[in-house]
Design a protein that fits this description.
13 strands, 45% helix, globular
């Protein structure tokens, strides 16, 4: 019988935060299905934690080369997605995201006619390998007679173009993100029938994020409960279930029981899949500390032996990254050493020395 502590360790292992690291960023993203990425710096570190020896610059290069893509695909927010998966995933999740956006579409006077026009303008502007920034695309749309002076309206125009599979991320230009034409960025993207896509997403979630509940999957995917149940029904032949404290959890049967040295610390960014991918985070976060921890998703958190035990933040000073920690309770000497090791790992990712106050 699993305990809540076992859930935490198994998730660390299944998400590859502990255990065998991946070789390439796209392998991480494909394994997890999607990686929440509206905080770009944090999302890069989230992927890097599941690899060995990758740097922040390497992650920028992966985005520049298009081996990982950044787009709106679920809930709705930005995610990293593998190019091979982006078409079938969008076809499955975009209708739900559009339904969530429907109020703003009406309020901003955006309908199918306007979206057809804006999508055509954006596709033409980006074809031929062009990669343009948001201000450049806003100007292009404005010149075509599509109002973009309202930033909220422009944001929904671009978001709809992502959901319709017209645009996705391009390379960084300095510190500015660009958009690229999806047909050219992911020419080998797979398409799946809806049931195939539903089974694929469901199986991938529970394999990579398990142990997890049906409600966790509904939250993560943004799918309806009915669709999530249908997906689980199709995928469950490849999964096993465990009933823990009256809750039914699903996970891959091929995953060995996680064994991690104690204490082991990890510095997780905001919106890491370890925290954001579950509706119920009580297995990794004591509800007593939920407010201090930003509910586990709105603040970077310190995880020791699978449990959220504090928060952290960084500042840059004199060519070094200064790491400040805010533990919920005092760390032991061994926990402090584990935290220092995690901080050095982060410094290696940034290519900077680390200062621990």
């Amino acid at each position: 019988m699993m305990t809540t502590l076992d859930i935490a360790h198994q998730r660390l292992y299944n998400q590859h935060i502990s255990g065998t690291p991946f070789e390439r960023p796209e392998d991480v993203v494909q394994w997890l299905g999607a990686v929440q990425a509206q905080d770009y710096a944090g999302a890069k570190w989230a992927v890097a934690q599941r690899m060995h020896g990758i740097t922040d610059a390497d992650m920028d290069q992966a985005l520049a080369e298009g081996t990982i893509l950044r787009t709106h695909v679920m809930r709705p927010t930005w995610h990293f997605v593998a190019p091979a998966d982006i078409r079938w995933m969008l076809s499955l999740t975009a209708p739900g995201v559009n339904a969530l956006n429907a109020y703003y579409y009406r309020k901003l006077e955006l309908d199918d006619v306007v979206f057809a026009q804006s999508n055509a303008v954006l596709a033409k502007a980006l074809q031929g390998g062009k990669q343009l920034t948001r201000p450049e695309l806003a100007s292009t749309l404005q010149q075509a007679g599509i109002a973009t002076d309202d930033l909220l309206r422009f944001g929904h125009i671009m978001g709809r173009a992502e959901l319709d599979g017209i645009v996705c991320s391009g390379a960084l230009r300095g510190k500015q993100h660009t958009y690229a034409f999806l047909d050219e960025r992911a020419p080998q993207a797979k398409t799946l029938e809806r049931d195939e896509a539903l089974a694929e997403l469901t199986g991938r979630y529970f394999t990579s994020h398990g142990p997890a509940t049906l409600q966790d999957f509904v939250w993560w995917s943004g799918l309806t409960t009915a669709d999530a149940k249908a997906g689980l029904e199709m995928a469950k032949t490849h999964l096993v279930q465990e009933v823990i404290e009256g809750q039914t959890y699903w996970l891959s049967p091929s995953m060995p029981t996680a064994k991690v040295a104690s204490p082991t610390a990890h510095l997780l960014p905001v919106y890491d899949e370890y925290t954001v991918a579950y509706k119920d985070r009580s297995a990794v976060l004591d509800p007593v500390y939920a407010k201090q921890a930003g509910n586990g998703i709105f603040s970077p958190v310190i995880v020791i032996d699978g449990k959220i035990v504090g928060t952290w933040k960084r500042t840059f000073k004199n060519g070094a990254v200064v790491m400040a920690s805010n533990p919920f309770t005092a760390f032991t000497a061994a926990e402090g050493q584990a935290l220092a090791a995690a901080a050095r790992h982060y410094g290696e990712f940034l290519g900077m020395p680390v200062v621990l106050p």
